[in-house]
Specification:
With 334 residues, the protein is mainly α. It has 8 helices and no strands. 67% of the residues lie in helices and 0% in strands. Keywords: Membrane, Transmembrane, Transmembrane helix.
Length: 334
């Protein structure tokens, strides 16, 4: 057993445990609760809030409707452009990851960088599937269908009673259809949002640690600046920012909990493999056999807040600045 536990290591264990439990509590309060007051923002993706008559008439703030998963925040932009962006990003990142594995073998997944890079790639893969489905839905909404519906509507309009009856049926059908869509979007939107918002914070902390700490101070034979490492710590953020500039998904603050859980999972993974015999630590600030370990772990826990906040501010800036610069072309995400 390579992991030797000292008294100050229990402080490190407590910091990670507190961060994980705190994130679970935040999700329980914000995500899993189906109740909301009229004067608060409803942000849960698990279900849509019905109106007083039981119908879901609108998408609450930060709730992802089905169309928000694959439509652009720019008016007139075909969903195919978002599909193309996500597909190209996924393929490019898969190429870089394959290159990394060929150079260093599967042991490269001991690094948080590869965890984050793979997660971003998974987001683009999932987004590609969702966008492909969205393009299929978009293709069904042809002008011919609209003309046919208008002609049928004009024929029914000749009879007053029939018109009222048809309108009532259409209204009920519309409510029912929207309810079904909201339920489906709740699941897919929930899954896509988890990965998207985890990627936002993870990419920021990965690139900041690499460019500001590892490259200047901790470079060695395993971790250093070369073409591959430079690309992986640049394109992960670049591709995600391009997607953010096009997509219509919100970025609420409380989902920092998923980002925290992702990092906790990585730290626990490191503890487990070291308990099983691995003696080498990929990052010096994760080493447990140092009296300074509790301080490092505390700093790492705290730094998750500004890292997630940086990406949240980018999304907020997009929704604040672009509507003023392009009032006729941009649609706010929330």
């Amino acid at each position: 057993m390579a992991l030797i536990v000292r008294w100050y290591d229990f402080i490190c264990f407590g910091i990670v445990a507190a961060a994980f439990v705190g994130s679970l509590w935040m999700l329980w309060r914000k995500e899993a609760s189906s109740r909301c007051d009229d004067n608060t923002v409803y942000e849960s993706l698990l279900m849509a809030r019905p109106d007083t008559d039981g119908f879901v008439r609108s998408t609450p703030l930060a709730h992802v409707g089905s169309s928000q998963l694959w439509t652009s925040c720019w008016k007139g932009v075909h969903p195919g452009w978002l599909l193309l962006t996500r597909f190209v990003s996924c393929v490019a990142m898969a190429g870089f990851l394959s290159w990394d594995i060929l150079d260093w073998d599967a042991s490269i997944f001991l690094y948080y960088t590869e965890w984050t890079f793979t997660l971003v790639m998974v987001y683009f893969a999932l987004g590609t599937v969702v966008s492909a489905y969205g393009c299929w839905v978009y293709s069904k909404e042809t002008p011919e269908n609209g003309i046919r519906d208008a002609e049928e509507g004009s024929m029914v309009a000749s009879v007053t009673y029939g018109e009222k009856e048809v309108r009532g049926k259409i209204k009920l059908q519309s409510h029912y259809t929207e309810e079904v869509i909201q339920q489906r979007a709740g699941f897919y939107g929930y899954l896509l949002q988890i990965v998207y918002q985890t990627c936002g914070g993870a990419v920021v902390i990965t690139d900041i640690v690499f460019w500001c700490i590892i490259v200047p101070f901790l470079s060695d034979a395993h971790v250093g600046l070369n073409t591959l490492m430079g690309c992986m710590h640049t394109f992960n953020a670049f591709f995600l920012l391009v997607d953010t500039s096009l997509n219509s998904m919100p970025f609420p603050w409380f989902r920092i909990a998923y980002f925290v859980q992702w990092s906790c999972l990585y730290v626990v993974f490191q503890w487990i493999i070291h308990a099983c015999g691995v003696s080498w630590w990929p990052y010096p600030f994760l080493v447990l056999d140092s009296p300074w370990a509790p301080l490092w772990y505390f700093v790492l826990a705290v730094v998750h807040i500004p890292c997630y906040g940086i990406y949240a501010l980018i999304v907020k800036a997009k929704n604040s600045i672009f509507p003023r610069w392009f009032p006729q072309a941009f649609v706010r995400s929330y």
